[in-house]
Amino acid sequence: MDQIVHGKAGADLQNTPRPPLDGLKVLDLTVARAGPTAVRHLADWGAEVIRIDQPLPPKGSPANEDVVGTERSSDYQNLHRNKRSIRLDLKSSAGREIFLDLVRGADVVIENMRPGVKKRLRIAYEDLQSINPRLIYGSISGYGQTGPYRDRAGLDHIAQGMTGLMSVTGVPGGGPLRVGIAVGDLTAGNILALNLMIALFEREKTGRGRWVHTSLLESLLFMLDFQATRWLVDGEVPRSVGNEHPTGVPTDLFPTADGQINLTAPTPKMWASLCKVMEKPEWSAQEEWSTRRGRIKHRATIHAAIADVTRTRSNDYWIQTLNSVGIPCGPIYTMDQVFEDEQVKLLGLAAPVHHPELGTIRLVGSPMNFDGTEKRIRSATPDPGADAKEILANLGYGPEKIATLEENGII
Fold first, then answer.
1. pTM (2 d.p.)
2. Separation of alpha carbons 237 and 300, rounded Å
């Protein structure tokens, strides 16, 4: 799991099992985070991914830079590993023709442009489906492929506000608060990856491709799940409750003798176990605390009583003791502490890879596991255009034609 791989997949992989998506050919037109997140799932599990990077800007013009940073930034390296790259000027007829040559042999194209952009470039699904009827075309937009917001730029921060996520995040009375990760981008990418797998499964039966798409708005609203359902079914507008849980009591951060712990015991069985472990039989005897509804009503009193007990012992004591009786309890880590945890180390979530310029770096490993298949990053993120000559040669382009394309700024 922690084996370091130097450069691209090669002879060192000949004796290892083929990854699940080996043979799947993907063209990556994505930028920022949502689209690359979808592509990363496919790349991590063996798909042959060719990233279509922007051409070099004219001399004297500002350099192209993705919102996740330059190609050597940690964020960019984490998003685009296990790929090859070619620069293409899709606005030019020659660049578009190269792209169409790639499409003819591809299984999947993934993009997260605004809907109107791909139509202007003539690389929308209807443009490509006619030359490759088996093509699966995946799209992520900010707000959907149709409707009054279709051409708005979609950003995670804006989607968090529009879906109500910010209204249920933060402490009571503190006002709307952004979640600390790009949860809208990541969720849209994860959902599109699932969408693509469903379409590929369907293609096995029909022999034909399909356009599949999602948006930050749809994906993030889906993630609001029980808060959204409380409004749709119960007519209740959820509010922020901080580190507490709106319906599961007790749930909160609690002080200990040397820090804080996360603790939750919302079920009758867990509540009974908590009362016993904390040597508080009188809590169980209180009729108004004996039901879920009663514990919600008396949340503040219950949490204060628990805090009086937890602050008498250490983090380690409560984490070990409570988990031993089936009560979920855990530490509050900073990021450096996360990767020192023995369970995180065991799961291989800090995955090493060798980059020719950066040396050996560690990236965030895939959360997926396939029994019998080694989980590792096969190759570091290439510089934009690094594989252009190889990719074009595989298409049958000769050295002279490749040189001309390079001279003309097409690649």
1. 0.93
2. 21
